């Protein structure tokens, strides 16, 4: 029993069971999924090993960003995000920062660290957008933002790729100001040289903690030496630059003597790298957070069935179906749930479950044949994964109830899209899809997405996709994820059907057009793979099946740590509507 007891315990202490033990292991499916996970693991290792060797940094008395995070974060709680994100296809093959969710001193925080192995943590193309994604997470979950900073400024050789623009390198500083306006603190630990953009990363947080050798400045030594340009470099200018660089190396602008002893910007100065991180831990202890049991509705419990079952349950073959409720049974506490309207809109699962004893809503795409006479408005058979009228209405209702009751939502996508054709249009598919988007926006709820397999067409948007900027905290992919506007074969047919007719009518060979169609199908396949989705930012991380529940725990635990609005459990309507 928790420290405080539990409200509405007749509803939540023991909920109806879901799922059953796995009948058999599908060895080939397991192997195929793990092969894709191994490919992703290689990409992650490539990012971790890029730039200077960790051993070389350590010899100089410097920890790598990953070592700093490992020291800072409570063991077993680190949930990395954007690890292989690289939207600009940088030669470094990353954005220069590492980020994720983790607990520090028992409290969840959003953490971002400069990758000091690559150009001393310089701004690279795509970094501003990565930072904005991270600050969005802090904003939506009302979590503290922790910076582990070591930023040498912009990669000046590619300034046009990263400096200006609406979401350029200056935007994160405005976002930092916005977080503080909302009462969300930002703590920074500073290492190394941090000029220009690195300086504003340093000064824009709430609490500034510095290593004794750190500095932060409007400009570095090289910038100071070039402040009186002639429009070209001659020998006189080169000699002046050499002199200024030697001087600034000995006494860099913005060092501790200036910003601790002088301006007082730096609150603490530490002798060792570890002490900077220890200071961050101390400040995290003093930040507001509810005791874990304050919002719990039951004791935490593991699912009855192991996460390893997911490797057999979810077919890597996208044309095969599977029981979605069995997947959910591997995520929910004690494999228990309360399903919302199970006999209405059968293509969609909606229900309440517990994650670590906290209440959470789930919406997922059921798979397979939906039963005779469904959808009711049509004379064709309904198939799981596609959205029909009743399912859209059902989701609108469930999202609205969860918004009213302040219950966070997790979406599990495996969708082929929304029903199409004149019959579907007459059934108001277009309007109901937009209604769901409105309901999501109106709910003002943080939401998490999992694209388990297919994220397709407008259904990808309306099912709480990453496009829901004011709601979607992050979206996870898996080894079976595919994201595209439509399947490659469908896209090829839509693009070349008329060309085939024309070729046929003119007596031309169909082979050239068929080849173009097959090239398009392959291109769609290549550009929808899990690794591609993560690099482009369509998902925020590719997560192993065995870690999906861990990310659910991080999301739900973060939501209930210090929420901005509350509905008392005994005042909730959603469980009463379900129970009747």
Automatic annotation (TrEMBL):
GO terms for cellular component: methylcrotonoyl-CoA carboxylase complex. Residues 30-299 form the CoA carboxyltransferase N-terminal domain. The keyword Transferase applies. Residues 302-580 form the CoA carboxyltransferase C-terminal domain. One of its GO terms (molecular function) is transferase activity. It holds the Pfam family Carboxyl_trans. Keywords: Transferase. InterPro entries: AcCoA_carboxyl_beta, ClpP/crotonase-like_dom_sf, COA_CT_C, COA_CT_N, MCCB/AccD1-like. One of its GO terms (biological process) is L-leucine catabolic process. This is Acetyl-coenzyme A carboxyl transferase alpha chain.
């Amino acid at each position: 029993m928790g420290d405080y007891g539990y409200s509405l315990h007749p509803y939540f202490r023991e909920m109806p069971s879901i799922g059953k033990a796995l009948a058999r292991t599908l060895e080939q499916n397991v192997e195929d999924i793990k092969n894709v996970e191994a490919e992703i693991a290689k990409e992650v290792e490539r990012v971790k090993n890029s730039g200077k060797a960790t051993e070389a940094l350590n010899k100089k008395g410097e920890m790598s960003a990953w070592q700093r995070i490992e020291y800072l974060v409570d063991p077993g709680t680190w949930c990395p995000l954007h690890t292989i994100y690289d939207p600009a296809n940088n030669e470094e093959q990353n954005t220069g920062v590492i980020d994720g969710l983790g607990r520090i001193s028992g409290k969840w925080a959003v953490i971002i660290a400069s990758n000091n192995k690559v150009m001393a943590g310089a701004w690279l193309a795509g970094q501003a957008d990565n930072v904005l994604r991270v600050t969005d997470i802090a904003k939506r979950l009302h979590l503290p933002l922790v910076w582990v900073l070591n930023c040498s400024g912009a990669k000046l050789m590619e300034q046009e790729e990263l400096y200006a623009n609406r979401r350029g390198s200056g935007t994160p500083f405005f976002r930092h100001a916005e977080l503080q306006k909302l009462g969300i603190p930002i703590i920074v630990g500073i290492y190394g040289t941090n000029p220009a953009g690195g300086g504003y990363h340093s000064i824009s947080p709430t609490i500034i903690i510095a290593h004794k050798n750190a500095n932060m400045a409007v400009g570095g030594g090289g910038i100071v030496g070039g402040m009186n340009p002639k429009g070209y470099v001659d020998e006189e200018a080169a000699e002046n630059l050499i002199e200024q660089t030697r001087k600034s190396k000995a006494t860099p602008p913005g060092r501790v003597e200036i910003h601790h002893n002088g301006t007082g910007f730096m609150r603490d100065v530490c002798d060792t790298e570890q002490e900077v991180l220890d200071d961050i831990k101390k400040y995290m202890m003093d930040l507001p957070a509810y005791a874990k049991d304050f919002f719990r509705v039951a004791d935490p419990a593991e699912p009855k069935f192991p996460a390893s079952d997911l490797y057999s349950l979810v077919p890597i073959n996208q044309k095969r179906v599977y029981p979605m409720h069995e997947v959910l049974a591997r995520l929910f506490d004690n494999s228990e749930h309360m399903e919302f309207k199970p006999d209405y809109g059968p293509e969609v699962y909606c229900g309440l479950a517990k994650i670590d004893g906290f209440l959470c809503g789930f919406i997922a795409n059921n798979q397979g044949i939906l039963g005779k006479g469904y959808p009711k408005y049509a004379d064709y058979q309904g198939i799981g994964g596609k959205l029909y009228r009743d399912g859209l209405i059902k989701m609108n209702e469930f999202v609205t109830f969860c918004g009213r009751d302040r219950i966070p939502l997790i979406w599990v996508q495996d969708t082929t899209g929304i029903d199409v054709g004149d019959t579907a249009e007459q059934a108001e598919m277009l309007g109901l899809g937009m209604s769901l988007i409105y309901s999501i926006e109106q709910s003002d709820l943080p939401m998490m997405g999992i694209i388990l397999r297919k994220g397709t067409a407008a259904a990808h948007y309306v099912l709480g996709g990453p496009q829901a900027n004011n709601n979607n905290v992050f979206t996870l992919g898996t080894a079976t994820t595919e994201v595209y506007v439509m399947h490659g074969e469908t896209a090829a047919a839509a693009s070349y059907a008329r060309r085939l007719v024309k070729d046929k009518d003119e007596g031309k060979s169909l082979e050239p057009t068929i080849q173009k169609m097959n090239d398009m199908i392959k291109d769609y396949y290549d550009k929808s793979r899990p690794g591609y989705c993560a690099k482009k930012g369509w998902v925020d991380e590719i997560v192993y099946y065995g870690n999906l529940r861990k990310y659910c725990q991080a999301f739900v635990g973060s939501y209930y740590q210090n929420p901005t609005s509350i509905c008392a459990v005994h005042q909730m309507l959603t469980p009463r509507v379900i129970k009747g």
